[in-house]
Design brief:
α1 packs antiparallel against α2 and α3 packs antiparallel against α4. It contains four helices and no strands. It is 90% helix and 0% strand. The protein is an all-alpha fold and 280 residues long. The protein has two domains: 122 residues; 101 residues.
C-alpha cells in the first residue's frame, strides 16, 4: 500500500502542474493561438523529465530511509516511473485536447468576427455609395434651387417692369380721356355747325329768290328799301356762314388732332399688349 500511495500522489500533483493555462476568451489572432499551443507543448515536454526525476528521488529517499521501511526494487521503480509517465501523458493529452478544442473555438470565433467584419465593410461600402449618391443629388438640388431663386428674382424684376409699363399705360389712358372728350365735343359742335351752315345757306337761297319778287311788288322807294334790307340780311348771312365755316374748319382740325393723338396712343398700347397680357 505504501508503494501505491507514493506514485499516485506524485502523479496527481505533478500532472496538473504541467498544463499551461488556457488563453482567455478575448484572445487575438490565430497566430497568438498557435503560439500559445506551442508554448504549452514545450512546457509539458520540458517538465516531464523533471517530474520523473522527482519521482525517482522520492523513491530513493524511500529506500534510504529508516531500516524498518520496505525495500523498493528496480522493478517497482520502473512500474512507478511508467505509471507516472502514463499519468503525465494522459494529463498532457487531456490538456492538449482542451487546448485544441479552445483553439478551434477561438478559430470559429475569429472566422465569425472576420465574416462579421466583411459584412460590416460591405455595409460601409454600401453606405459610402449611398452617401456619394446623396451628395451628388444634394449638389444637383442646390444647383436647381439656386437656378429657381435666380428665375424668381428675374420674374420679380420682370413683374416690376411690367407693372411700371402698366402704370405708364394707365397714365397714357388718363391723358387720352380728355382728348376723347374733346373729340366727342368737336364732333357734336361740327354737327351743330353743319346744321347751322345748311340753315344759313337755305335762308340765303330763299332771300335771293324772294328779293326780286318783293322788289317788283313794292314801289320804287320801297323796292330800294327792301333791296337794302335784303342785301344787309344777305351780308349778315354770308358773315355768319363764313364765321361758322371757320369754326367748322377749326372743329375739324381739333377733331383730326384728337384722332391722331388717339391713334398714336392706341398704337403704343397695342405694342405693349403682349407684355401687359402677362400681368393678367
Amino acid at each position: 500500500s505504501g508503494r501505491e500511495a507514493g506514485p499516485q500522489d506524485s502523479g496527481s500533483s505533478d500532472g496538473s502542474a504541467g498544463i499551461a493555462p488556457l488563453p482567455s476568451s478575448g484572445a487575438g489572432t490565430a497566430a497568438e493561438l498557435a503560439s500559445s499551443r506551442s508554448r504549452s507543448e514545450e512546457e509539458v515536454g520540458a517538465t516531464a523529465p523533471a517530474r520523473i526525476q522527482s519521482a525517482d528521488e522520492d523513491a530513493e529517499d524511500a529506500t534510504s530511509g529508516e531500516p524498518d521501511e520496505p525495500f523498493v526494487s528496480e522493478e517497482d521503480k520502473t512500474k512507478v516511473m511508467a505509471l507516472v509517465g502514463s499519468l503525465l501523458q494522459a494529463e498532457w493529452e487531456k490538456g492538449r485536447a482542451q487546448l485544441e478544442a479552445r483553439v478551434e473555438e477561438l478559430e470559429e470565433q475569429a472566422a465569425e468576427e472576420t465574416k462579421r467584419s466583411e459584412s460590416q465593410r460591405s455595409r460601409i461600402g454600401d453606405l459610402e455609395h449611398r452617401l456619394a449618391k446623396e451628395s451628388t443629388r444634394s449638389e444637383r438640388l442646390r444647383g436647381e434651387l439656386s437656378e429657381a431663386g435666380r428665375q424668381v428674382k428675374e420674374a420679380k424684376r420682370q413683374a416690376l417692369r411690367e407693372q411700371a409699363r402698366a402704370v405708364e399705360a394707365e397714365e397714357e389712358l388718363a391723358r387720352l380721356r380728355p382728348l376723347a372728350e374733346e373729340l366727342t365735343d368737336a364732333k357734336e359742335q361740327i354737327e351743330k355747325l353743319q346744321d347751322l351752315v345748311a340753315q344759313l345757306r337755305w335762308k340765303l337761297s330763299q332771300a335771293k329768290q324772294q328779293a326780286p319778287a318783293e322788289v317788283a311788288r313794292a314801289g320804287e322807294a320801297q323796292g330800294a328799301e327792301w333791296r337794302g334790307k335784303m342785301e344787309e340780311e344777305a351780308r349778315r348771312l354770308r358773315e355768319d356762314l363764313e364765321r361758322f365755316s371757320k369754326e367748322l374748319g377749326g372743329a375739324h382740325e381739333r377733331k383730326n388732332s384728337a384722332m391722331r393723338s388717339l391713334t398714336a396712343a392706341a398704337r403704343r398700347l397695342w405694342e405693349r399688349r403682349p407684355r401687359l397680357g402677362k400681368l393678367g
